[in-house]
Structure formats: C-alpha cells, structure tokens
C-alpha cells in the first residue's frame, strides 16, 4: 500500500515537473518569436511543445495559460488571440501601453513610417485611402513618390505584424484600397502619444483636436 502511494506521488511529481518544463519551453519559444512581430500560430506552439517536451494535447491549454502568466510577470508581455482565416493565432504585445513606438519597432525608418501612418489614420477619423496615404507620406518627406520598397513596408511588413490593416472597399471603378489601425497598434500604441506629437509639431494644445482628444483621453481613462 505504502509502495503504491510512493509510486503515485512519484508519478504526480514527474507529471508536474514535465508541465513546468513545457511552460518554460513555451515561454522561451514565444519570446524568441516575439522579435519578428509576426503572429504565432497555436499549431506552431503545439508542434514545438510536442517535439521538445512531448506535451499531451490535453495539457496545451494549461501550458499556454501558465506561460502567459510568466510572460506578464517576467517580460511585461501578454498573448492576445487575434482573428485568423485558419486556426488560432496570437500576437505578443506589451502589457502596458508604452509612451512611444520606439521600444516596439527597432528600424528608425520603419518607426517613422509607422508613427506617421498611424497618426494620419487617427487624425483622419477613419480608414485612409491608399493614394491619400502615399501623398501624405511623400509630402512629409518620408517616402519618395515611387518608392515601392518603402510602400511595401506598409502594405506587407506592417500588415503581417498587424500594426495596420490594408483592404479593399467598394466595387468596380469605385474600389479603393484603404489603411486602418491593426490589432497590434490598438493594443500597444496610445493615441494620446500620437496626439501629443501632433500638438508639439503644430504648437497647439492636444485638445485643439476635440474629437481625437476625447477619444484619446477616454482610452487612457478606460485602462
């Protein structure tokens, strides 16, 4: 009887140790992937856990939940489930809104383009037509008129990273591609930061733009 209890205890301890290993491995995998800003497929996490720790399918949810707790506590990150055409995907975002985009985007040009694009959309009060975006960025001196490489940063890189959405509206001759804030931007980028940048540039008070100021302050008060 005592031998059986010891055996049960040993099995339970081993199972708990395996779960801890899986959680650590899950955290390591997510942190390594975070740098690319590309959404992580749940299937990729499952495959990695199965390969490295032989994690059982019925343990995966527990592992991801516990890994998310560690990400928040140790790294200041959190997993956010995002809309995907096939399967579940996650993005890794900061748990606290930062006071700039600097810590999120390393490349200086990309950072300037992102701030400018998000600001233009925000100040426009809704989706911005593609042609209007190129004109704005050209007039701001951030993109040459036919800089297709630069444009690809907006239409591909920022889309994959979910800072922006890029989609078609309308039909036929009226069809237009537009840009809109993506889910990562909504999670990470404080609108008040962008509005303060605008205020500094135009030497105005942030509340000069009434609607945007109201939206930005409501966002702050809701967090």
From TrEMBL:
<dbReference type="InterPro" id="IPR002190">
    <property type="entry name" value="MHD_dom"/>
</dbReference>
<feature type="domain" description="MAGE">
    <location>
        <begin position="19"/>
        <end position="216"/>
    </location>
</feature>
<protein>
    <recommendedName>
        <fullName>MAGE domain-containing protein</fullName>
    </recommendedName>
</protein>
<dbReference type="InterPro" id="IPR037445">
    <property type="entry name" value="MAGE"/>
</dbReference>
<dbReference type="Pfam" id="PF01454">
    <property type="entry name" value="MAGE"/>
</dbReference>
<dbReference type="InterPro" id="IPR041898">
    <property type="entry name" value="MAGE_WH1"/>
</dbReference>
<dbReference type="InterPro" id="IPR041899">
    <property type="entry name" value="MAGE_WH2"/>
</dbReference>
